[in-house]
Structures are given as C-alpha cells and as structure tokens.
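Predict the 3D structure for this chain.
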Amino acid sequence: LTDQIADLLFTPSSDANENLLREGIPDERIRLVGNVMIDSLYQHLEGSRKSQIKNQLGLTEKSYAVLTLHRPANVDDPVTLGRILSALETICKELPLVFPVHPRTRKTLAQHGLDRRVRELTSLRLIEPLGYLDFLSLYSGARLVLTDSGGIQEETSVLGIPCLTLRENTERPITVTMGTNKIVGTDPAVIVAAAFAALAENVKPAISIPLWDGYTADRILQSLS
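Done. Predicted structure below.
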C-alpha cells in the first residue's frame, strides 16, 4: 500500500526495481540509489578499527568466526536450536566461534538445558551483545560469519567476508547472487559443508554491488532537489 501511494521509491538494487514494476509502479517513480546501510558501514568502518574488542578477546585477524542468532524461528524452538548447535560443535573443531548472545537466545538455552551443551564447546565463546563499533570491528576481522540477521548479510558482502545465513530464505537476495552470502537453513550437514567449503577458499576481496558505495544518501538528496 505504501508503494502505491508514494511519489518516489528509492531502491537498493535492481531486483527491487523489478519487484516494484511487477506491482505496477510506473518506472518514472522508481529511483535506484543503492543501500543506505552501506553508507553507515563506510562512515563507521575507520572508527571501528580503534575498538579494542579483538585484543580483549585475544583474537587475530581471519583466525576466528562470528555467530549471531536471534530470530524466533531459530532460537524459540529447542529442536531447531539444537540442530544449529550440532553444526557448531563440528565447526568449532576447525576454528574458534565468537557468539555475542542475544537475550532471547540465552533464555532459550537456559530453559531447555542447552546451555550445558554450549559450555562443553570450549571453542565457542559466548560474550555479551556488543555496540555497533565493537561488533563491526569484531566481524570485519572474521574469517567466516554465521547469522540469521539481515543487515549482516549485506555488510559482509561488501567487505568480502563469507556469510552463511541460517535461514531458508532472505529478504536480501542480491547478497546471494552478487555477494558472499549463502543460504544454508538449519540442517547441520548443510551448514557444516558450507562452512568448510568457505574456509577452504582464499580470502575474498571486497565485493562491488552496484551503487553500494557509501553515497546512497547523496543520490537520494539529488532526487529530492
């Protein structure tokens, strides 16, 4: 409904333009401007390098993975969460996993006795949630990211970091077709195979998704002037 009444629609990627055209939105109301979240990423990337979080955790660049997990479909169901933990148990044998734990995830782990299982994984390091700059510093130095978050799929693609999305779909398909993101669901065998395949590859350079360059807000302002 919002699409239908808007005078201008700013899109992050060409697939969004195609979606709007299928909705019947006239082409002259659509502006492909890029991803404003990437503006924020580039604005804060240099500042994040001042963070001491990696030193505090004793981590060196590209020698660890980062995990985030918070979506109800993954963490509210102990069976699903248990499947993901099965994959993590195997991946942890290859490299350490740093896990800033969302409060709802910590609650489920405790309620269903899964916290005992987690404590046995000495290479899975549970830490408190981080602020943006510390978290950006942490995952930008990771060899691999596993997540069910949307924004991280975008930011890892721009930074060239392999990302495994622990979901059956994504609202950011451009990160799969042009980025470093791979949809792996919650099947332990699929997650482990994808993780080991990513680790076997050479470290990738930053990815160039059209107009994800840090100047999206400028293009929006030009469209409004």
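The beta strands are 9-11, 30-32, 65-67, 97-100, 124-127, 144-147, 163-165, 181-183.
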